[in-house]
Write a structure and sequence with these properties.
The structure holds two protein chains of two kinds. Chain A is α+β, with helices and mostly antiparallel strands. Helix content of chain A is 50%, strand content 14%. Chain A has a five-stranded antiparallel beta sheet. Chain A has a four-stranded antiparallel beta sheet with strand order 13-15-16-14, sandwiched between helices. Chain A has a three-stranded antiparallel beta sheet with strand order 4-6-5, covered by helices on one side. Chain B folds into two domains: 3-200, BirA Bifunctional Protein, domain 2; 206-281, Class II aaRS and biotin synthetases, domain 2 (Methane Monooxygenase Hydroxylase, Chain G, domain 1, Up-down Bundle), CATH 1.20.58. The chains are: A alpha+beta, B alpha+beta.
């Protein structure tokens, strides 16, 4: 039977609506299941003013057998077997014939008692009772109180509609009594509506300018977008995030279209898009890659016959663009380099000094990186880009639109005729902004981004900050991800360990954590993030362990290792080889360093293994130096046959200590070679798990 | 509708809602929220209803009279209802209707926008009200002021009068607004904006402002110790305005900024605490 709940509120933020709906779905399913009520087709709907739960519930709670326990068995009977006075008294108090009592074992022991059928309770009663607790249990990122109430919620509650099978489920909550009434659109049809079921609820709301189903609103928006753009042969610049947000902000979406004077097309696209999106939640209109002087917006209204909505938005957008133009022109009057000296007034972090200090360090760090990454010809430009990269923090535009940091610096630099390398590097140096975001396209941007982030990571750890599950105020996780992503995607081949040494050196006088400890913490942190990246790419955890064991000094090599393992895990030799590698590792547990002496070989198989090893060492040397781990691995697989023969025919633990140690030394060399590729012993193979 | 007609209509509307119409406060403030008619009255338990016009100074918003929308001084119409009434959103809509706005022809939205003023240790939850995309009002349920949890909760409705007028008069330039039938916004304010922009951005003497700030801060603390809370609060308002001026001169670093805001908040929090204690005794 149909259950319908609508909680009306004042306008909730769209992220709160979505979170509240998923919490409601979970709580209802939990609570009703716990109350043994059958539940089907549970779903949630809503808008910024309504949280709606719809479900098909069984008519009531099933009946349940219940045990009524009386006195313990040992005092229930007299010596002659007759009922004691305790038993008789219990029977009387329960209004049941004493003969009907029986001995029942319950958890506490044996008792005299009887069983009876407990009638299931009515749904209305159960829901009426649970609802207040369910609503109170909803949590939001930020809560408020209102009036004289101490109850906290995202925004004030206005009304409760709660129906089961057409009847009101009576309940009280925070001064509201549940009923069968709701109301239409708050502005455009503020009338009370009485409803008996969902079909009616849906229909009456629709007639009164509320589309309760978010999917229906989304379809309507997309259809209206198309209608508006049909004549222009243009497209909406896709912005799923904005669409998703606005979808929940409106009860009756109406797409409006407006234009702005063409002269504002001279502003950089980044500025236009930000003024439209951040400032006014409008969508850009493009034709291919070209921005057109139009916008689309989503209003909450039935219609705009007098064009008030479109022209109102036009006027506000024009004002914003005018302000942006003021910033653009005004900011350009000051050279970026002239702003740099003022960066000493902008604190980066109290113990790490100002942004002025930071850019001084960055200049040195990018020079170091340029030398090691074969970017020597860009060295001067990169150092200049590092000097200028934070200057835009002092511009009016970035103060107004902080999300344009970096981009504005790059745009101003280009306009002020700095080289393309410099402008691009500044423009891109905050990228990637998330795990999904792209890394800088230009090598300069990648180097500067790398340096900026590494300086932050080392600096913040170096003055004693730690991060925990929820607390990561300097976004060290994101920054470390970004560096890993840059190294891997830009194929930067450089020693992380030595780069850390350099970075630590540049920060030396500000650090409060001992250098060794700091470096260790940084490396562990990088390893953790790299592991996370590999897991996200779908690599098996044991392969990841094997690939990371030889160290993460060169991140590109760590990735080549995991790729090689992943590629070869299907080959027929793989499993045998792993078992062999494990055998070698086991036998070498706690073996001291011993020098190998081929003169001490006794058996043919020793000589064969040794010569195979030398050939394979020679053949893999280049491959390993190049990071071709798949190639090297294929060759190392050839050790299998001689190694097999060795284990079959030769007793490693020979009685003669000299000979025994020599054989162990031979195996140590084998181990050393294969561990250059991966720690194979970490890999789980099927024959072991069975 | 001219600017002054708008004042009169809003006074009329809110006075009929039972509000006391307060005279404009005679100190520089950044927002109507900061005057004693709001700050002290939202503290403690006593019910309160007030409405008033308050000029609000934000030195960094100055544009030398060249920007058609931004000014370093604008006018707010401030309403406080304590405790917040259940139908306050509807009453607010009625106030717009009383100005002749036919809401059924427009798109009026309550758009998430929480408010915070670290200087007076206050924050609240609410919305910016958008009318066809134009922000005309800030609507806030106060949760905390002077560092104290507020109970009961007050609702604050702050109309931006120039914005509302630009909507009502369909003007794209603030200076073209009619203040009365004969006097324009330009007549009254253009020269002021120009001169104050020069003062705020270029001429204000940072050293002098700094020294005034520390004098006012010391004096406020002395007055708090004497339990002269209202004069002490006035001095906090002075500190706040001096701070804003220094900020528009670009004379404060980020650390200093945090420090100065912290200094004012410490004073304001002491005042709030003592004020509530005193009210409890009476």
């Amino acid at each position: 039977m149909e259950f319908l709940l609508e909680i009306m509120t004042e306008e909730l933020p769209s992220s709160h609506v979505k979170s509240a709906l998923s919490q409601l779905e979970e709580k209802f399913s939990q609570e009703l299941t716990a109350a043994r009520i059958g539940i089907k087709n549970l779903k949630t709907l809503g808008t910024c003013r309504r949280l709606v739960v719809l479900a098909d519930l069984e008519a009531g709670q099933p009946d349940e057998e219940e045990i009524v326990a009386g006195p313990p068995k040992h005092i229930s009977f007299l010596a002659d077997g007759n009922f004691s006075s305790a038993a008789l008294g219990f029977a009387r108090s329960q209004g049941i014939a004493v003969e009907k009592l029986e001995v029942i074992r319950i958890q506490k022991g044996e008792y005299l008692g009887f069983k009876r059928l407990k009638k299931g309770r009515a749904i209305e009663e159960i829901i009426g009772e649970k609802l207040p607790a369910i609503i109170s249990s909803l949590t939001f990122p930020k809560n408020m109180r209102w009036g004289e109430r101490s109850f906290c919620f995202s925004r004030p509650l206005k009304n409760l509609l709660c129906l089961f099978n057409g009847q009101v489920v009576p309940t009280e909550f925070e001064g509201l009594s549940s009923g069968n009434r709701t109301s239409g659109h708050f502005i455009h049809s503020p009338v009370e509506l009485k409803v008996n079921n969902f079909a009616e609820y849906y229909q009456r709301l629709k007639e009164n300018f509320v589309l309760i189903d978010p999917q229906e609103r989304k379809q309507s928006i997309l259809r209206q977008f198309q209608e508006k753009l049909a004549g222009l042969n243009a497209q909406v610049y896709p912005d799923e995030g904005l669409l998703e947000k606005l979808l929940w902000n409106v009860e009756h979406p109406l797409v409006i279209m407006g234009s702005f004077p063409e002269k504002y097309l001279n502003l950089p696209l980044e500025v236009l898009a930000t003024a439209m999106r951040e400032g006014q939640k409008l969508f850009s209109v493009v034709k291919g890659k070209r921005q057109l002087p139009y916008f689309l917006g989503i209003a909450d209204a039935p219609a705009d016959p007098k064009n008030f909505l479109a022209s109102g938005n036009e006027r506000v957008l024009k004002a914003r663009l005018e302000d942006a133009r003021f910033f653009w022109e005004n900011d350009l009057k000051v050279q970026l380099s002239a702003r740099v000296s003022y960066l000493k007034n902008v604190v980066f972090q109290e113990k790490l000094g100002s942004y002025g200090d930071k850019v001084e360090r960055l200049q040195k760090l990018v020079a170091y990186l340029a030398d090691r990454l074969d970017l020597k010809s860009d060295r001067k430009d990169l150092s200049e880009a590092a000097r200028l990269c934070k200057a835009d923090l002092l511009t009016g535009m970035v103060r107004e639109f902080p999300e344009l940091q970096g981009k504005m610096g790059g745009l101003y630099a280009r306009k002020q005729r700095y080289s393309e390398t410099i402008s691009r590097a500044i423009y891109e140096h905050y990228l990637p902004l998330s795990l999904e975001d792209s890394v800088p396209e230009s090598a300069g941007g990648a180097v500067l981004s790398f340096a900026d982030k590494l300086d932050t990571i080392v600096g913040i750890f170096g003055v004693g900050f730690t991060i925990s599950g929820s607390s990561d105020p300097f976004a060290l996780r994101r920054n470390t991800h970004a560096i890993c992503k840059i190294i891997l995607e830009k194929k930067f081949h450089l020693s992380l360990s030595r780069t850390l040494d350099k970075t630590i050196g540049l920060l030396a006088d500000r650090l409060t954590v001992p250098v060794d400890q700091l470096k260790k913490r940084c490396l562990e942190f990088f390893e953790g993030r790299l592991r996370f990246i590999f897991e996200k790419k779908g690599y098996r955890y044991d392969l990841i362990n094997a690939a990371l064991a030889p160290g993460i000094d060169y991140l590109d090599y760590a990735e080549a290792r995991i790729k090689a393992l992943n590629e070869l895990k299907q080959s027929k030799n793989f499993e045998q080889f792993i078992l062999m590698a494990k055998r070698v590792k086991n036998i070498l547990k706690e073996v001291p360093k011993i020098k190998l002496d081929s003169a001490l070989f006794k058996e043919k198989e020793e000589n064969e293994l040794y010569s195979a090893l030398r050939i394979i060492q020679n053949n893999t040397e280049d491959l390993l130096a190049r990071g071709d781990f798949a190639g090297a691995q294929k060759i190392v697989f050839r050790l299998q046959m001689p190694l097999n023969n060795f284990f079959d025919r030769v007793l490693v633990m020979a009685e003669d200590k000299k000979i025994r140690n020599n054989r162990l030394a031979l195996l140590t060399q084998v181990q050393r070679l294969i561990q250059k590729i991966a720690d194979y012993s970490q890999i789980v193979v099927e024959s072991e798990t069975k | 509708m001219s600017m002054q007609e708008l004042f009169l209509k809003l006074y009329d509307f809110w006075s009929k809602q039972g509000c006391y119409i307060a005279p404009t406060y005679d100190l520089e403030v950044g927002a109507g929220t900061m005057t004693p008619d709001t700050f002290f009255r939202v503290l403690g338990k006593k019910p309160w209803k007030v409405a008033y016009v308050q000029p609000s100074r934000r030195p960094t918003d100055g544009r030398y009279g060249e920007n058609p929308h931004r000014v370093q001084k604008h006018f707010q119409f401030q309403v406080i209802i304590k405790p917040s009434s259940a139908n306050i959103q509807r009453i607010y809509l009625d106030s717009l209707t009383s100005l002749g706005i036919n809401l059924s022809e427009h798109d009026l939205r309550f758009d998430e926008d929480d408010w915070e003023s670290p200087t007076i240790g206050a924050w609240g939850v609410g919305w910016q009200v958008l009318l066809d995309g134009l922000e005309i009002t800030q609507f806030t349920y106060f949760q905390q002021a002077g560092g104290l949890e507020l109970y009961p909760v007050s609702v604050e409705i702050t109309y931006g009068l120039e914005r509302l007028e630009m909507f009502l008069q369909q003007k794209d330039n603030i200076y073209d607004l009619k203040w009365s039938d004969d006097v324009s916004y330009r007549d009254l304010r253009f020269q002021e904006e120009k001169e104050f922009s020069v003062y705020n951005f270029e001429q204000a003497d940072c050293q002098m402002l700094q020294s005034w700030f520390s004098s006012a801060e010391k004096e406020a603390q002395r007055l708090i110790n004497q339990n002269l809370l209202l004069p002490a609060y006035d001095l906090c308002l002075k500190c706040s305005h001096l701070f804003n001026l220094l900020d528009s001169r670009g004379g404060i670093s980020v650390t200093e900024r945090v420090k100065m805001i912290g200094q004012i908040r410490t004073l304001v929090n002491q005042i709030a605490k003592k004020f509530v204690e005193r009210e409890g005794e009476s």
